[in-house]
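sry for the spam today, last one i promise. struct tokens for design, 201 residues
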């Protein structure tokens, strides 16, 4: 009976990991007023010595003030685990690229490395199979512990040790990615407990 509880708990964690792959992993919030102000300042420094430039900069500043009068507008962009490889390869999302760099550190061949995120739900499926086989064979429980520990502990270390404030694009890590890493960590803990307690049928 206890084996069934351990196996069932690991399967639930794996299902949560699969679902969280399609949930938001990272979010960036951009201030429209700040973007408009930066654009106006940049244009002012480059075009201020031309007659057309002066008019253009003046109009841009008026537009910026108008946005400010309406209240700041926040533009939010989110990416899920499923989105990362496509957005990274197309370079269509700074959020996806920054998140991929957090996960893989080295920016070289980032578009190819980002494809590795698809292994996360795949390994979750593997853990489901290992949990089922673990009812009969101890070695599969050991394999689930290795997978859970490597991904859960390694992933959480990267997320916690990364200084997000130093990134070019300010992002926040969302629930989907946390659920993924904690899900794998829990698979690791459950597998170790299963091995230590040696529950009988």
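last one done:
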């Amino acid at each position: 009976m206890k084996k069934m509880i351990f196996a069932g708990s690991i399967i639930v964690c794996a299902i949560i990991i699969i679902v969280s792959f399609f949930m938001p992993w990272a979010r960036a919030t951009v201030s429209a007023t700040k973007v408009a102000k930066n654009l106006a300042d940049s244009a002012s420094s480059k075009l201020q010595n031309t007659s057309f430039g002066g008019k253009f900069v003046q109009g841009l500043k008026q537009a910026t003030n108008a946005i400010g009068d309406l209240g700041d507008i926040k533009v939010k962009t989110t990416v899920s685990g499923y989105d990362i490889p496509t957005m990274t390869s197309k370079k269509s999302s700074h959020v996806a690229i920054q998140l991929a760099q957090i996960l893989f550190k080295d920016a070289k061949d980032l578009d190819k490395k980002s494809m590795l995120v698809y292994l996360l739900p795949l390994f979750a499926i593997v853990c489901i199979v290992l949990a089922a086989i673990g009812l009969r064979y101890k070695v599969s429980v050991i394999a689930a512990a290795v997978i859970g520990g490597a991904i859960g502990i390694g992933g959480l270390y990267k997320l916690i040790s990364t200084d997000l404030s130093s990134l070019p694009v300010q992002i926040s890590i969302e629930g989907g990615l946390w659920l993924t890493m904690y899900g794998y960590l829990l698979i690791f803990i459950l597998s170790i407990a299963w091995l230590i307690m040696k529950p009988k049928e």
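The radius of gyration is 24 Å. ok im logging off now
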